[in-house]
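Quarterly update, task 2.4: iron/sulfur cluster-bound model.
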Amino acid sequence: NDTLLRVRDLKVHFPILRGLLQRQVGAVKAVDGLSFDIKRGETLGLVGESGCGKSTTGRAILQIEQPSAGQVYFEETELTALSGEPLRQMRRRMQMVFQDPYASLNPRMTIGDVISEPLEIFGLAAGREKQARVQYLLAVVGLSPEFTYRYPHEFSGGQRQRVAIARALAVNPDFLVCDEPIAALDVSVQAQVINLVQSLQRELGLTYLFIAHDLSVVRHISDRIAVMYLGKIVELADRVSLYENPLHPYTQALLSAIPIPDPTVEAKRQRIVLEGDVPSPTNPPSGCRFHTRCPWAIERCHQIEPEFRDVGDGHYVACHLVDALGKFDPALGD
Ligand code: SF4
Ligand code: MG
């Protein structure tokens, strides 16, 4: 079976409470009905503007955030039906690398303790075996053994992110959620961390959900890419299809914002500038959520939510102007 994770109609709604009685007056619909699979050994890129629900999606898959509805399956196990010790045991197989390596490492712990803490939590190694594991993990992420007895503040952002990756790998997981792992790093070290993440995948057979806020970051690392807007996935396709044949107007706009070196392509591609701000997830627009900013919106888009459907070879899109054969056609609105 080549599917590692299955996500079905996943929702995370945060209640908005008011007044003395803390009555619920609404909900922030951070994640609002996602369905997709992650294949064993692949990198699924998850892209969208900040606040669209990417991080919450990653956290909800790992059950760090309690989903409001829907199911997440890891192999044949439904994570969303587990709690207590069985869930804890499944958690060992799934880890997260956070965006900010300055905030995610405890400043009072030595690097050795930071990396080995998960081993203790899961009771996987102690004493000399634990020390050996720390040395191995430092080597795996390209850091010298001397790091063991030093503290996070002594190191650069890139080095700290390597420590965070070593920590995530300590318990030998199958699946990692990488939540914008290079966004807080200097541009000069971003490529090194991306290369590390990629080579670790090959060597350790890892599966990734790789979250980023723009399409240039995930381009080189992803096998498939999901584009998210206001709590929904609007398009999902393999990398080549997504970059060469983006179907959703939002994906087209995101792609048009990436500078491309080839001037002949540039001439053919028009920069699409989106008007307005991202609407609030508390009260998302009716119909297609993108209609308030979509340059192609037609009457139907205001009323009816477009279905997220496969238009061929696993290229999924939710737009009224994409026909059944996977062609974007503004004439469909006539
Ligand atoms: Fe634009 Fe309508 Fe397609 Fe939504 S459904 S992306 S508003 S054309
Ligand atoms: Mg985020």
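Highlight for this quarter: Residues 98-172 form one domain.
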